[in-house]
Write a structure and sequence with these properties.
389 residues; alpha/beta; Spo0b-associated Gtp-binding Protein, Chain: A; Rossmann fold; 5-stranded mixed β-sheet; 7 helices; 21% strand; binds guanosine-5'-triphosphate; binds magnesium ion; P-loop_NTPase
């Protein structure tokens, strides 16, 4: 056990999913009162979504975690307009949300090339400021990584999430019969014959109380926020974390996982979800699956199987329920097809919603009455003139 926790710590320590850095915009340059010269503005600090960059790399390359932009040049007789200070860019992976120390979101990097200004440079001295420059903005900002993947695997430990990922993609996650084998998220790519790719994020197992920071779940729950869909994975024969913890059947696991997500952030449950019932190669799996399907079809009748405060407010309706055996390969091809189908349906739905929105806006624009002629509009009492809004 000691060995296990040490090993976990070492590997966990390698993965960085948030970073707090100090940023400072450059000060502006002095103006030149005698000739009306304007000092250069200070440089800005930006966070830019860049290829092949991880938060770990930033941390390793900038041990002091300080990013300071260049100062603007003073105005001189030779160069009345001082040169602007150099900008500084912090390269970061896509999927980053940037917040200040008060938790205010400054911006998000979703695709390569997206950039967020995190510290503004000071203004160069000019006529308007008595030729005195201003200082650059100084603060700490937090970079928070949320993985971007098409599907996120959600399940109790040992359900077989990593085994499934290795069965459907080229990823080689660690697999073992003890809980919490996966301690850092990993993304695998499912390749289809027509070269379409679907990314699947293997996340550490959730346990009851994950939303309250129990287990590793809480730290990684944020990663399900950015996946397009959820792939619930349950062991058909149920799960027991330790000898003193209660045994949970597959039905209970589904509902408890739903509740954990609900307690973390209810919006997450609005994502389409697929239920994967794993380990169908085990003896009695068939009967267990029948029981699960019956319970899922009559959820209300089986609420008593859950702790009172763990009954989800809304039961999740899965787009598909797929029995598989991740280790034997049974049902894998069907699952791959259903995953793709579900993503394509979601894309089509999104396009349809966009089309409907556009149509509605267009209709509103064409049916709204024309603005009244200026002469008939009420006069602004303050100036005694008619005014335009
Ligand atoms: N019999 C059987 N065993 C399986 C199957 N899939 C996974 N297992 C076993 O279940 C155990 C857990 O598998 P993992 O893939 O590590 O489970 P996980 O959900 O990733 O677990 P954590 O990383 O701890 O959350 C391993 O011993 C696997 O060999 C299956 O389809 N059938
Ligand atoms: Mg795992």
């Amino acid at each position: 056990m000691v060995w296990l926790s040490r090993c976990c710590f070492r590997k966990y320590g390698n993965f960085v999913d948030h970073l707090r850095v100090y940023v400072k915009g450059g000060a502006g340059g002095m103006g030149l009162p005698r000739l009306g010269g304007q000092g250069g503005d200070g440089g800005n600090v930006w966070v830019v979504a860049s290829k092949d960059f991880s938060l770990r790399k930033i941390k390793d390359r900038h041990l002091d975690k300080r990013f300071v932009a260049g100062v603007g040049n003073n105005s001189t007789v030779r160069a009345l307009k001082g040169q602007k200070g150099a900008d500084v860019e912090i390269p970061a992976p896509p999927g980053i949300t940037v917040t200040d120390d008060n938790g205010k979101v400054l911006g998000a990097l979703n695709v390569l090339g997206d950039k967020v200004r995190v510290a503004r440079g000071g203004r160069g001295g000019s006529f308007h400021s008595d030729f005195l420059p201003s200082k650059g903005q100084t603060r700490h900002v937090r970079l928070d990584l949320k993985l971007i993947a098409d599907m996120g695997l959600v399940g109790f430990p040992n359900a077989g999430k990593s085994t499934l990922l290795s069965a459907i993609s080229h990823a080689k996650p660690e697999i073992a019969s003890y809980p919490f084998t996966t301690i850092k998220p990993e993304i695998g790519k499912v390749m289809y014959d027509d070269h379409r790719q679907v990314s699947v994020a293997d996340l550490p197992g959730l346990i009851e109380g994950a939303h309250m920071n129990k287990g590793l779940g809480h730290k990684f729950l944020k990663h399900v926020e950015r996946t397009k869909q959820l792939l619930f994975v349950v062991d058909v024969c149920g799960f027991q974390l330790a000898s003193h913890s209660p045994f949970r059947s597959a039905f209970q696991a589904v509902q408890l996982l739903t509740k954990e997500l609900e307690l973390y952030k209810e919006e997450v449950l609005s994502k389409p979800a697929i239920l994967v019932v794993n380990k169908m190669d085990l003896p009695e799996a068939g009967e267990k699956l029948d029981e699960l399907m019956h319970q899922l079809d009559n959820k209300e009748d089986f609420c008593h199987l859950l702790p009172e405060d763990m009954v989800p407010r809304h039961f999740l309706t899965f787009r598909h329920t797929v029995p598989i055996s991740a280790s034997c390969g049974q049902g894998i091809a069907t699952l791959q097809q259903l995953v793709r189908q579900s993503l394509e349906e979601q894309e089509a739905e999104a396009t349809e919603t966009q089309r409907q929105d556009k149509l509605r806006t267009l209709r509103r624009a064409t049916t709204s009455p024309l603005p009244a002629p200026a002469a008939t509009r009420p006069a602004n009492p303050k100036w005694g003139l008619s005014y335009d809004a």
